[in-house]
Every structure is written in C-alpha cells, then in structure tokens.
Amino acid sequence: MKTLITGGTVVTMDPTLGDLARGDVLIEDGQIIEVAPHIDTPDAEVIDASERIVMPGFVDNHRHAWQTAFRGAGSDWTFPQWAQAMHRTVKPHYTPEDVYIATLLGRLEALHSGVTTMLDWYHVAQTHQHEDAAVAALTDAPGRSVFCLGAGWGSDTAIEDDIRRVRATLTGGGRIDLALGMRGPGTTGIDTTAREVKLADELDLRISLHLEAPGVITELHEHGLLRDTLTGVHANGIGVDELRLLANAGGSISISPDVELKMGFGAPMTGLALDAGLRPTLSIDDVPSAGGDVFSTLRTAFAVQRSIDGRLRSRDLLDFATIDAAASMGLAARTGSLTPGKDADIILLRTDDLTIFPVTDPAGSIISQGHPGLVDTVLTAGRVVKRHGVLVDVDLPALRERLLASRDRIAADAGVVLDGTWQPTV
Question: Which residues are CB-contacts of 131 (< 8 A; sequence separation ≥ 6)?
C-alpha cells in the first residue's frame, strides 16, 4: 500500500536532503521510500499537503504520563511541593485503571500535538497490575512509545525480577519497547546501581536517569558505569567537565526547560551541554506543572539560551526535538527525519492559520509561532492517526469522562480539594 503526501513545504531534517519549498513524500508499507520535488505515483492514496509544512514527528524522551489527570494543578508548585503532591499524596491512591486512563490520555495528547515517539517515564511503582495497565495504555494508543520502567522508585529494593517480567513481554524492536528508569547511586548506593547497569546491558535496555545533583556522573564514570545508552535528565547545576564525561561515553541529555525554570531547578543546561559536546534533547516532564506540547518547550529553550549568549538558531531546536532525540533513544535509524528507509512518522502543520501565516522561514515559524492547533495530520509508521485536526478512531468524550472520574476519586481519597488553592505543605 502506497501513500503520497504531495505539494507541501518539506522540512526533512536530513542534512543531505535539505528542505523542499514544494515537495512530495512517498510512503510504502509504513516506510518512506522517496522524497522529491515531484513524485508521479498514480496508484497511491494521496494526502494533499498544500498550505502545510511536512516534517518528521516530534520525539519526547521524558514524560510522566501517569500524572495526566492532575493537569495544571501544580502550575504554582516548587519541586518539593510537586514531589509531596504527586508521590506522597495522590500516588498511593492510584489503581491500575487510574494508571491506564491517565497514560492513555497523556499519550493521545502528545500524539495530538505532533509527538509520534514518546518515552513514558513510569514511577508509580506499586504493583505488577499498575505496570501492565501502563503498558496496555501505550499499546492502545497509536504511535511509537517506550515504557521506561522506574521499578522500586524511591527505595533500594531489588528490581531485577520486575524488569525481567516486563521484558519478557516487551522484547524489543516493536512499536512499544522497554527502557530502564534507573534510581541512581544517591538512592540505592553504587553497588545496586552497578547491578542495574549490568541488567540493562544484558537485556539490551536503554537507561534514563534523573540527574539532580553534581557528582553522580563522576561516580558512575569512576565505577565504569557510563554508557552510550544512558540519557541523563535535567542535570541542572552540573559542570561542563562532568557533563563531558557523559559526552565522552556517548550518552545524552534530556532537558525539560519549562519545568526546570518554574520549579527552581535553575536555567536549562542547553548551552552547557553543547559546550560539553552533548547534543541537547527536549522533553515535557509533567503536565501538572507545564504544558504538554513540544512547541512551548522549544520556544522556552530557545528564548532562554538566546538571552544568555545568542548562539542557537531555530534549526538547532528542531534538531533537538527530532533527530537528536531519536538518537538519544536508539531510534535514529527508524525515525527523526524524513529519510528514505525510515518509518513514516510524519506530521503536517497548517501554514494558512493566521497565527503563523505567512510562513517565510519554516523553521523560524515553527519555533516562534508554532502551537498544537497547527497540527493538521499525523502519521505513525505510515498510518494516519490524526486527520484534519481530529484524532482518528478515538472516542474522546468517553475517555474524558473516565479521566475526570479517576481524578475526582483520587482527590477525594487523598483529601485534596481541586479548586485552585492546593498548595502542598513540605
């Protein structure tokens, strides 16, 4: 089966192909097979991309989808307040159904705003049924997802059996894969961390680790535990020399600028990461505190770094959220650019909307004026999952009702009032 996306402004994110002011993209069996100014294929289903930007879908490599039901509740919270609210107040009251519906709506929201690949950093860490519910939600949502299992989160309990159990189902290479959400030596001690890294090596798992204090990278380096499969999240306050150790090991960094600035982590590490030889990537983190769309994240990261040294360009930010983020997840051969041979993970952005019209520089317009309302069409592995601004085959009214019921029951059980006055006491 062939699909031809025709007549759009094509932003390939492939340095060899470049951009096409007017171009076509041909898809067959879920893969991109040709990108050219004009492709003549009479037997293909046609998607008219006139007045559209055609580009690879965004890649978000760090989002806690289980918190979707409490969207916006933490807009005024500090990091300690968020931890108190989400981990110590509401999390104990989550059932597997609560995890399922929050994860499903969180993944659909990301897809709706153009995120075709997402890593779901799971740290509800209660029962196997909770974990299975999250995996089921990611499976039921179209798109490519990575279930990053933060088993034993907040404790030093053994996690090997838990990780092996889920790996037996998520065997790798499919639409849903598994990663290890590592707790790190500050929580478990270096010996347990070493066992977890060894386990990840054995099971071919990538590792995501929240870096919230200087010295962690150095300790991992000194014990031979840095890997090119490791993505450090946040890393605020960590020096260039230490970041360079991560870069030399081939690792990567995920920056969540909106959350980091609002919660008091400090300035995003975009520029310092570049100084250390790392290609920054961008992520949402959590929607109780920040918006769930990549456009806002791009704009914040761009504005902050430009205010510091003016070095970044719009194209750099698009790299961070597409091809660089795909590389950080080990998926650069499959997604992140409109390169023949890669999966057809593609989004079409409207250029006739008054909030972006007229588009003179596509990259500049996406960064400076982009927003989720421009996401007209989304394809994942060649399958159309959003068309003309509407998700395909999704009963949103029923899902919204389930999420509201989940949120209200959790809040009642936790003794939380959701009237805008909730300020957790730390």
Answer: 122, 149, 151, 162, 166
Q: Residue 223 and residue 37: Cα distance in Å, rounded? A: 52
From CA 159, how far away is CA 373, in angstroms rounded?
41
What is the rounded distance in angstroms from the CA atom of residue 285 to the CA atom of residue 254?
10
Q: How far is CA 196 from the centre of its chain?
A: 23
- For residue 177, which of 154, 155, 208, 156 has the smallest C-alpha distance? 208
> Tokens 């060899």 correspond to what residue?
16
CA torsion sign, 128 to 133 to 139 to 145? negative
Residue whose pair of structure tokens reads 């978000």 in the numeric block: 60
pLDDT tens per residue across span 158-197: 999 999 999 999 999 899 999 999 999 999 999 999 999 9
Q: How many C-beta neighbours within 10 Å does residue 139 have? A: 17
**Helix ranges restricted to H, 3-56:** none
Query: What single DSSP character describes residue 7?
Result: E
CB neighbour list of residue 382: distance below 8 Å, 6 or more residues apart: 1, 3, 27, 28, 29, 30, 31, 343, 344
Per-residue pLDDT tens digits for 105-160:
999 999 999 999 999 999 998 899 999 999 999 999 999 999 999 999 988 899 99
Asked whether the beta carbons of 318 and 11 are under 8 A apart, the reply is yes
| Residue 41 near residue 4, CB atoms below 8 Å | yes
